[in-house]
Amino acid sequence: MLHEQIKNNIKEAMLAKNTVLLETLRSMVASFTNELVAKNRKPNEILSDPDALTVINRLAKQRKDSIEQYKKGNRQDLVDEEEAQLAILETYLPKLMEKSEIEKIAKNQVLNHLIQDNQVLAYILIFLGLIFEGEIVVITTGVLSYLGVLNFWISLSFILAGGMAKTFGGYYLGGFLYKKYSHHSFFRYLEKRVLFFMPRFEKKPFWSIFISKFIIGVNYLIILFAGYRKINFKTYFKAEIFSTVIWAPLLLYLGFYFSQTALSYSKEISRFSLAIFILLVIFLLFDKLAASFYRIFEYLKNGGRVFSRRRYFCGGHSFFDVRKKRRKF
């Protein structure tokens, strides 16, 4: 209790023979006693901290008024004495925030209220974000959930729903695009990119689809590729379900960690945002590095031979090479 602390400080001031400190502390204790009496309580009781702070604030205001009066009367000796006592009183008061700090907090509150007042829209954007992007959306959602702006479980539900929408939509979109634009160079590019990252896609479609979820930018290609190659939907769906159930909470908790780390660095919104951005960049670089190691692993597992798309599709030829041969006949 603050009241008891000040009483103990009186003993320390007496031992230190600090006259100004001792006088100030005694005036505080006397004011506490007067406050107790005014509240119809016993003088030897202990004042609560809120009441004690109220009394100290009152004493500090009195000192400030006295300083103003003494300055007008050109009594510098009394001004110095009152200022010394005021400095002691202020050590027991909570530190007042500066205007710039208040403005920063206000900006943070405005941002929080903006999202909280439009939570339905925020969840819809999360759902759409999962269809068109993925990792950054989930991590950002984790950051906002940690800050209490969004509900974690509702966010996770919309993330999973968005992931499933992408799973179904992408698969059927791949099949539809192939029927309409089968000769387009996009499919040659798609085949090339998929084989670059997942050279054993035809032999192990489940694990190729599963692993692609954790490589940024690859899962979208895999989904479209699975659609136009008519990969067994049951195998495809199981791989997407299992990978999404692991991937979504993992990235959400990563957002939690990013937010916690950034807050430990600074509560200022600009520095906090910068810290989040740096952590995201580190994550993206790490993901790229992991993808490279995976490629090396596949290369070594193949006996050090470069993967060729001709080995895995259409009986030793790529899908497009077969189409070319058929046109000749």
TrEMBL record:
Pfam families xrefs: YqeY (PF09424)
Superkingdom assignment: Bacteria
Bilayer-crossing regions: 120-146, 152-178, 206-229, 241-260, 272-297
Keywords assigned by UniProt, alphabetized: Membrane, Transmembrane, Transmembrane helix
Record-level Gene Ontology MF annotations: carbon-nitrogen ligase activity, with glutamine as amido-N-donor
InterPro entries named in the record: Asn/Gln_tRNA_amidoTrase-B-like (IPR003789), YqeY/Aim41 (IPR019004), YqeY/Aim41_N (IPR042184)
Keyword hit for Transmembrane: yes
Name listed for the protein in its UniProt record: GatB/YqeY
